[in-house]
Amino acid sequence: MTSLSPGQTIGILGDGQLGRMMAIAAAELGFKTHIYGQEEGSPAAQVANTSTIADYADKEALRRFARAVDAVTLEFENIPTKTLEFLEPLVPVRPGKKILEITQDRHLEKSFVNSLGVPTAPFANVESLEELQKAVERIGTPAILKTRRDGYDGKGQFKISSATEIEQAWKEIGEKPAILEGFVPFELEISVIVARGVHGDIQAYDPVENRHKNHILDITLAPANILSTVTNHALGLAGKIAENLDLVGLVAVEMFVARDGDVLVNELAPRPHNSGHWTIEGCTTSQFRQSIRAAAGLKLGSAQRHSNAVMRNLIGDDVDHWQDILDHPDMSLHLYGKAEARKGRKMGHVTRLFPLNTPPKI
Ligand code: AMP
């Protein structure tokens, strides 16, 4: 398997903040980047060498893109799989189409995870109101109805607290194919990001705790305050998932930790993840550099954490405080170059490091 050399070009599908931080990491390693996205002046295009603005179904634009790059990766898991199918014979695509097929569909994703013997919340496939009624009878309430596809940051979800809400839930999610999931009374939410290289080498970042506000990630604490047995268990589950996906790239595994230390997998994202932004300052190799090394077919770097960290997202008009943040010399500010601070929009983040023997504080 050939690897890329500095000076060659990595194509990135998607043009948001993850693509931006991937492109910056690629530049640090001497690579050029070419963004394929939808928006003029996007966060990623602002820092890349070249960009294509075209639909993901535009075969002519995709063919030109494939010719202009030496490997392709992605920053967004909802890239149509047909796009990857078109690109794969033309250029190495890492991670590939098969992984996206699984991670774009909550039912396939949870079934895959369970097939490895890795537990999730109980779930049922739901394609009609009748099936939803049966699923609620089987799984009980409270439960969460989630569209199978295209959900993020709590969108396409409805919590069913009692059977009287079944019809409303079905309407609210748009009467689309869905899964019903048992509600997990978790103690905390954690995530593990695992990288896997072309030769099967694996590097995993320590589990971190994620706290959400209005369904959007608010704060990540690195490392998560969990027993070492839970840490090792979570790392083992995430590594098993990466290997069985035959992944080349990154997978973020979101998990629930129950009061008794039980770990259930909630969701997979085959790309750098918001809960890994702290690795830019806190680890030997950031998640972004790691994703570029994997895409380029290079050996992975160490995911060793050299500091504890807190990462806070700047959502909507939080970003107005950028000057106050800069008044704290120990805070690292990252802004994504988005012009308009709409409500709920991720505008940037800020990271603060702590010594390894000091618990990260908010
Ligand atoms: P998701 O889009 O699946 O990541 O869900 C968004 C958020 O909703 C999660 O981060 C949890 O806080 C919450 N959530 C999702 N599924 C469940 C569940 N089965 N039980 C309890 N909380 C959940």
Count of DSSP strands: 17
For CATH, the homologous superfamily of the largest domain is named as ATP-grasp fold, B domain
Euclidean distance between termini CA atoms: 44 Å
Order of helices and strands: EHEEHEHHHEHEEHEEEEEHEEHHEHEE
**pLDDT average, as an integer?**
97
The profile of the biggest β sheet is:
9 strands, antiparallel
Low-confidence stretches: none
Number of domains: 3
Shape: globular
Features:
362 residues, alpha+beta, Rossmann fold, Dna Ligase, domain 1, D-amino Acid Aminotransferase, Chain A, domain 1, 9-stranded antiparallel β-sheet, 28% strand, binds adenosine monophosphate
Provide a descriptive summary of the structure in words.
The chain contains 11 helices and 17 strands. It has helices at 17-28, 59-68, 81-87, 97-103, 106-115, 129-139, 166-172, 228-244, 279-282, 287-295, 322-326, and strands at 9-13, 32-37, 50-53, 71-74, 123-126, 143-147, 157-160, 178-182, 188-196, 202-204, 208-213, 216-222, 249-257, 263-269, 308-315, 331-335, 346-354. The strands form 3 sheets. Strands 9, 10, 11, 12, 13, 14, 15, 16 and 17 form a 9-stranded antiparallel beta sheet that branches. The protein has a 4-stranded parallel beta sheet with strand order 3-2-1-4, with helices on both faces. Strand 13 and strand 14 form a beta hairpin. The longest helix has 17 residues, at 228-244. The structure holds adenosine monophosphate.
